[in-house]
Write a structure and sequence with these properties.
Radius of gyration: 20 Å
Number of helices: 9
Number of strands: 0
Structural class: mainly alpha
Order of helices and strands: HHHHHHHHH
Length: 253
């Protein structure tokens, strides 16, 4: 047979093939991400938590709080994968294909590689990976808001596409990227038996204040302008996770 009985250049056929690719690649990338994080959090030596404990900073988050956040994020992504398979509305399919596309697939892979770099204490590589993750997630979220904004006519799109993507973006923006950058720049202190740095200057308190202030100001602008409940919950959760990991310098509070 010289050629297929369908026109592969037709836009409808291309969209169908793109959706099929996403139906395969997205769950696979989520599985890889979850597996890598579980291995690095439980089986690796040192674990993700131990590396964090060995390198405390003014913006170190509380590991259990971040773990629960990640669990909620993965549940949201699982719902996204189900929507990929069950979507019937053309608008929903276009949102999945055009706005999110492979960026979420790549983001999951990048997150998995970040976990590996973190447990090996490759902080420069971890920072670069978090920067790439931010670019991917910013692209998806901006494309969603500009070209496929949430609407009450499609509540599942809002719950299973917009919400998980914004929840995902908030994590590296507020915690993972600045934390990795702090360690790359040496803005950490050696833990002492009581858990406090020997000198106040070792806190790098005002650097921590700048991160917390800027990320929360960004979140406030989004919440006020867009009345974004998802971002409000995510930003509040991540901010509390920083405060729960004590001790902390006063400016961070």
């Amino acid at each position: 047979m010289d050629s297929l009985p369908i026109d592969l250049s037709h836009p409808a056929v291309q969209d169908y093939l793109a959706l099929v690719r996403l139906q395969v690649l997205t769950p696979l990338s989520l599985l890889i991400n979850v597996a890598a994080l579980l291995v690095c959090a439980i089986l690796a030596n040192p674990t993700i938590t131990q590396v964090a404990r060995d390198h405390p900073t003014a913006i170190s988050p509380n590991p259990p709080a971040i773990g629960i956040y990640a669990l909620v994020l993965f549940v949201g992504q699982l719902g996204y994968c189900l929507l990929l398979v069950l979507a019937s509305k053309p608008e929903t399919k276009q949102t999945l294909i055009k706005a999110v596309g492979v960026s979420l697939v790549l983001a999951n892979w990048v997150m998995a590689f970040w976990a590996i770099a973190w447990v090996f204490s490759w902080f420069l590589a971890a920072t670069i990976l978090q920067g790439i993750l931010l670019l991917l997630l910013f692209y998806s979220n901006i494309a969603l808001l500009v070209y496929h904004p949430p609407t009450s006519a499609r509540p599942l799109d809002t719950a299973l596409i917009h919400a998980p993507l914004r929840f995902f973006l908030a994590l590296p923006l507020s915690i993972l990227f600045p934390y990795s950058l702090f360690l790359t720049l040496g803005l950490s202190f050696d833990p002492t038996p009581p858990g406090l740095p020997r000198h106040y200057s070792a806190w790098h308190a005002w650097s921590g204040f700048a991160v917390v202030m800027s990320t929360n100001l960004f979140a406030l602008i989004i919440v006020v302008l867009r009345r974004d409940l998802v971002w409000c919950v995510a930003a509040t959760w991540l901010c509390i996770s920083i405060w729960l990991d004590t001790p902390k310098p006063a400016p961070v509070y």
